[in-house]
Amino acid sequence: MELNNQKWKILLKDQIPSDWAEEIDVYETQIELRKQGKMDEKIFAETRLRRGAYGQRYDNGHRHDGKILRKIPFPNTQTSKGPSTQWDAPGMQRIKFPFGGLTANQLEVLADLCEEYSDGIAHITTRQDFQLHFVHIEDTPDIMRRLAAVGITTREACGNAVRNVTACPIAGVCRTESFDVTPYAQAIFEFLLGHPDAQDFGRKFKISFSGCSQEGCGLAYMHDLGVVGVLKQINGKSIRGFDLYVGGGLGPVPYKAKLLASFVAPEELLPLTQAIARVFARLGEKKIRGMARVKFLVAKLGIDEFKRLVMEERKILEYDPRWTSLILQANYKPEEALKPPSTLKSSTYPTGFLEWKKNNTFQQPQYGYGVVYIKAPLGDLTAMQLRGLAQMVRKYTKGTIRVTVEQNIVLRWISEGDFTEVFLELQALGLAQCGVNQISDVTSCPGTDTCKLGISSSRGLARKLSQELYNQRETLDEEVKKLKIKISGCPNSCGQHHIADIGFYGVSRKFSGYTVPHFQLVLGGQMKENAATYGLAVGAVPSKRIPEALHRILDWYVTNRLKQETFQDFIKRMGKIEVKNRLQDLMIVPPHDSDKTLYSDWGDVREYTNSDIGKGECAGEIVTPAEFALSASEREVFEAQVRMDNRNFSEAATLAYLSMIHAAEACLRVFDREYQGSPEKTALEFKKRIIESGKFSGPAVAYFLRASESVGRVLSEEELHRRIQEAQLFLDAIHELYNVLSNPVGTI
Question: Which CATH superfamily is domain 443-599 in?
């Protein structure tokens, strides 16, 4: 990789916001430093995760279609931490889209990227993101530049940060919503992106928006912060507000969010969210990763105490003009249609059209317009399909396309008279399959295909169940069609199995020395009322027997339910013991030699093994602000050398000094985790608290004092060369000092 000399960096220079461009340049430098062994792997892992670059399971250098991937591994650079082990194989790039909204241009760029850098597939996630798999680390800066040129950032798509802000995909065209929450989701996304109060979390923080309480589109109860729009009539006027729920989350053990505040005024939405972030950053778990979510903090403190702390924090927040400006932008002009309203006129329709119209479309409250749901099996779209959708977006809408948390696509503001043409064009793209949001529309995480934590093949099972149920759709009971199936490859619930009517998550069981892939059956969850109820596991069934187990449950429900009895009520009435009894024979695994089919997983002819399950990278290791400051120092002194080589002496001098300041800042953050200050303040504080107290001595002290005293002075080339050398020696000394200061049994 040649720094400062890349094609896309030059071509897109004027199309990328300057701050985004600088972030990508910094990230590119960090890749180079990691390759040279000058950046700790833990720091680099969190750095790349916060830019959406994620490790994945990698199988023998092949794609799933059997084609060999090119491989450009990191060199095995030996460092004090040992050889580089991460990203020796392709990984994944996650791309965030606030509220799932995309434009035609963005769809086309995704198409180009998945062809050029990935395996030709763009995958929709359960957080309205896209993911490109089998991507090489050295390609990620250029991927980020090409995305940034069309208004997309990957910043904080992963890592211990605020993840993508999700929202109801039909917000603004929904018949039951209080009001359109889309602009508020955009406002909170912009406000929190890179916000200093959201950089010191122990783990991730997820936010969702919903325009109503009765449906499941926003899933408020399963989020760290769930925001639900509400209306009140005050003095004859309809006034907007929000109910805020905190402390929800799925994972192995799901927590239901608690009501923090009712009818929060729009102008209080951002400052109150900032206060929540500050409380979480200050009091949330930092050492034990499995306890580092907001849900555990709320459970530990209780909702009343958590609310008290948030409200106290809100009182002391320094005013931020963006609280008002971003919300004022939210009073935006509502979305408009490209074409005038119309109705279907023909009485003769293409084969399959009427079934598609019945299942995949619905009328908007705006007369003459409808919403079209597009089923993306397993959340996958090819480059051809992405380009075809881009053309349709331009032809039929004003750019109003969204993806859903159930891994599908929504076209909005379609003039109803165009439904027939839309159907035919989708059919030509292979995207006109019926049954969106029905039982055959199975949601799945990547599972063992690409996830390091995957235990069982969630995608393989989802493919099998989806095909079977789709083929049986004409004979399925109408109540059965309404049920939701969600599958996770492990207990962590990325496939959201806890909120499905019927959920599955991957586990394994050992029999006579052989390991057999299984799925736990989870019953009793629901998406309605913003995911108000979570299901429970009732028993583990071998993976290959799940289809039979599912049909037993469905047939039992159809035969024995009471009139108008929901599936949840039926399971509750019958009891989990009876459910398990009906599946008991399927849980018995025969000896390996008598039936080997159970000893392999869906889509894999090999005998099953879970030996390649690795450590997940969902949030990375916990990295303190001080460690980030030290990492920034290493990057800056390296960049100072680059600037000097390019004879940009002024910038080189500035970077060399800043590298020393940021290293000093790291030490100050041992005493005050949230320390922030200007270079002048940091220099004075470091002298007072570190140097004058006797904690730091030796030649490095002179290097720092000399640099501080000559700020602003023009340095000769020879002086600059010395300054950079001294800066590096200062950093080396600071690393040793930091280890002493941050040691709990040290001398502080």
Answer: Sulfite Reductase Hemoprotein, domain 1 (3.30.413.10)
